[in-house]
Amino acid sequence: MNLLIMGLPGAGKGTQAAKIVGKFDVVHISTGDMFRAAMANQTEMGLLAKSYIDKGDLVPDEVTNGIVKERLAQDDIKGKGFLLDGYPRTIEQAYALDDTLKNLGIQLEGVINIDIDPTKLVERLSGRIIHRETGETFHKVFNPPAEGYDEKDYYQREDDKPESVKRRLEVNIAQGQPIIDHYRAANLVHDIEGDQDIEVVFADIEKVLSKLQ
């Protein structure tokens, strides 16, 4: 099976990706892993990416697309199929992926979209607090410190504060919606309710993928 997994930050995409890979034995391709491997193996695109990263510049789309193409052309993909995680991030990258798959003779079979109300994600993502002395991480709702803890003993990182989380989600929604629409038009999107227990979410994904196999 050749799949994409999509979802907003905090939707549980990473957790479910690991479960899919474990159950269905597809190759997990995450953007970070792909970049690290391409640079370590000194591929043409890896060296090009490194030249941008070393200067502190953003890696342009054509290089990212090239790294994806290099990875999808490798032999393990032909045997097992893939789960692509963290790419495409923009509609332009989605079009590039269409071309890459066409050129490699690979057919995309499904897009798992973990769908969750953004307001619930704000609570999930902005609840993280850190103990000032120990650096230990807690969550106000899901993993609070001892009962009756003193809030003065904890702090929040700037990017965990609700305003920052909302902005991050807004950017992700603006970038992600055209991609979802693109794949929905091709009848590839399977929406999964993400605001459930982890095992229930995976059971729903399993039902979809069992039919696709």
Automatic annotation (TrEMBL):
Q: Which residues bind AMP?
A: T31, R36, D57, L58, V59, G86, Y87, P88, R89, Q93, R157, R168
**Positions of ATP binding:** G10, A11, G12, K13, G14, T15, R128, T137, F138, Q196
Q: Which family does it belong to?
A: Belongs to the adenylate kinase family.
Q: Which organism is it from?
A: Streptococcus zhangguiae
What this chain does, per the entry, is described as: Catalyzes the reversible transfer of the terminal phosphate group between ATP and AMP. Plays an important role in cellular energy homeostasis and in adenine nucleotide metabolism.
Q: Does the keyword RNA-binding apply?
A: no
Which InterPro entries does the annotation name?
Adenyl_kin_sub (IPR006259), Adenylat/UMP-CMP_kin (IPR000850), Adenylat_kinase_CS (IPR033690), ADK_active_lid_dom_sf (IPR036193), P-loop_NTPase (IPR027417)
Give positions of region: NMP: 30-59
Its annotated pathway reads: Purine metabolism; AMP biosynthesis via salvage pathway; AMP from ADP: step 1/1
Q: Does the keyword ATP-binding apply?
A: yes
- Keywords assigned: ATP-binding, Cytoplasm, Kinase, Nucleotide biosynthesis, Nucleotide-binding, Transferase
* Record text on subunit structure and interactions: Monomer.
- Any Pfam family matching the protein: ADK
> Where does it mainly reside?
cytoplasm
Tell me the protein's name.
Adenylate kinase
Q: Which reaction does it catalyse?
A: AMP + ATP = 2 ADP
